[in-house]
Design goal:
ten-stranded antiparallel β-sheet; alpha+beta; Tumour Suppressor Smad4; 9 helices; four-stranded parallel β-sheet; globular; 2 domains
Amino acid sequence: MKILFVVNPISGGVDKKDFITEATETCLFYNISFSVFYTTGKKDKQKLKAVLKKFKPDKVASVGGDGTILFTATALMDTPYPMGIIPLGSANGMATELSINPAPIEALKDIIMSAMIRGLDLLKINKKYYTMHIGDVGINANIVKSYSKDPNRGMMTYAKYFFEEIKSLKNFTVTVKTPNSEYSSEVYMAAICNSRKYGSGVPLDLSGNPMDGKFEIVLLEQIDIPSIISAGLAAFNEKFYTNQQRKVITTDKAELLFSKPRLLQLDGEVIKKYKKISVEILPGAVQLITTKANKNILN
């Protein structure tokens, strides 16, 4: 067996050196050939494709957070190489969604052992960008913008900007068009969901499934601000979901229209402002190495 590790050395501010050392020992113990590709931020996809062509791995392990997973997934589209996930980011939202073992070395052993490979959906945004987890416009996108400029990471930094955003919270109008419906509303956030929860644990759509060929548009129409502030981040659980008023639209294609350009974030990356956002599903775009712990698997 040959494994290629795709590693973002700085994702989430998490040092990957100890994991690479232990992963090296594990691969040597099991007589597994391996190579490590480190992202640098410069022509990474082009370089990774060249490595894939030369090394021809049996499996690819994406080492990092949601951004690293998305990068690896889009690089592997239209290739025969299956991808496994090793959670070493700041939030690891997609890894949690897919029931990946939170212990990195155990996640690696699952990748080595598993013969269960299933299709994982991707979403294509404005015919240019991709997301596999959650994108949004509104309160969270504004938080992500501030968070991305802060040298500190972690939940406390996120909480700081969350409560700053709450103080100046304003709603806006969005119209959602799908092949079968049209809906307009005043919202605080319009989310594009391929899964259920943010990496912080905030649930948006408890029925979401990144392996079902559908996605959800979740419109947060009212926010129970007093309960959030009084309980703090501890409120970010199933109770948070039931306390907020929302509209959920399930579809395989949609357009979101705004009266003025709104900031879009995808999987924790700030994109730009748009008045119109188109979304389409790419069913089973990536071959995911998974296990029966993953409750999203469709028979």
